[in-house]
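Human: My hope is that you can spare some time for a protein that puzzles me. I am handing you a single protein, as its sequence and its fold in token form. Could you go through the record with me and say what the backbone is doing? Take your time, and here it is.
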Amino acid sequence: MNIRDYLSAVEMLAPEMWVVAAIVLASLWNLFFPKAREWTPVWSLAGLAFAAVELWKQFDRAPVPLFGGLYTVDRLTSSFGILACVVGFIVVLMTMGYERHLGRNRGEFYAILLTAVLSVMILAGATDLIMLFVGLETLSLSCVLLSGFAKRDVKSNEAALKYLLSTAATTATLLYGLSFVYGLTGSTNYYEIHTKLTPVLEAPSLVLIFLTVLLLSAVGFKLSAVPFHMWTPDVYEGAPTPVTAFLSIGSKAGGFVVAVRLLSFVFAAGVIDWSLILAVLAIASMIVGNLIALSQTSLKRMLAYSAIAHVGYLLIGLVSNRADGLSAMMFYLIVYGFMNLGAFTAAIMVENETGSDEINDYAGLLRKRPWLTVGLAVCLLNLAGLPLPPAGFFAKVFIFWSGVEMHSLLGWLLVITALATSVPAIYYYTRVVVKMVVGEPSPPVAALEPERRRMADGQVWPACALSLCVAGITLASFLVTPFMNVSMQAVSPVTAPPAIGWLPLERRR
């Protein structure tokens, strides 16, 4: 690669550069300007905002491979990058109301959080196994550090240790699987692997089956799909709530983009039916997640198990492996991001005032915090799939319809399971809403002062984050067609990849 191509590639990485600049500022600001530490999250927000703008500018560009095909800038890269930046932006806002739990290390927290966002952006554009591994490991280590950031909290330490041990086992599994891929093809580039695997996959073998199982187990861990979900409830409960919010969306976004690139493109022509294995994971996730969520008394643990169930719904679109299914999955992921982040933001606001995340302690919240109750109710009712407003309802309809469009017994089995398990989901989500609206105030809620004209300082920024989430849900409810069009364009690089777009620069000349 000559200097001209190198400078052109660096220019295409402007979004990532903005996030890197924000990481450096967040790391050093508290050190050199300790009296102005309140500006640390501001630099983080600015870096994420500028990165999202640059990504949006790149959305309509033709696919451009960089650095010999290690990284590709296309619509899938831009869309998942924007999603990661929006998630990071909202998480930073909710963290600004949670800083009293972080002590003096707030600068390090924002730097590690932005590193996790950057790793999702890297995963979104990775088209080489080496870049894939670097992105996944950066994301995993960042999440481990974030989970254990509350060093004096025993549950936070336990969450970090469980996440570390689980991700270490997954890393070994993934590397083992990738070594088989390299051994079969002699390449780490996605396009070359796709080309060279076609003759190899003419007949199934034990090696191919073993390879598929290894890769799917690594993806399943990152997505928290059953039976790779055991770390999820304890990590969600023990980690600081903003970290839990990021893990529920940001980390999963990285897992889904890896699954889409690998399964829908690299292994799309194989005779190994990975869709059947994914379908089993989806059905198990929907059943286990929803049934165990019924018995939870902690809101964070309930949302953890419900997140496992929603992964099952999302996998229906991936199993279909069609343009409509993948676009429905993308739409669902966007809407689910707003719904789940809003629920965790509301949990932070309640925890800031009551010190509890027990569902029973939410009783009667409407009488003391009406707007907070309305915001949380909108998020929970949409998570249940109820049309209030209809963003969550549309997301489920689209994803279920993609299963129907498979025109197979497997598709109908997925849809029937999804419909049946949605019933307990409606119960445990609406149970929280009913307690907040109808129930008598719990002792922590009854002890709250009446809502004042001026909101407490620690609640202002989480309230902004909750407002953004509700606004996102509302927009997705009434602008369904534009959102679906963007979702369809986002997955176009894997549903109809242009051959030249996947070739390294030097091979295109």
In short: The beta strands are 64-66, 71-73. DSSP finds 23 helices and two strands in the chain. Residues 154-185 form the longest helix (32 residues).
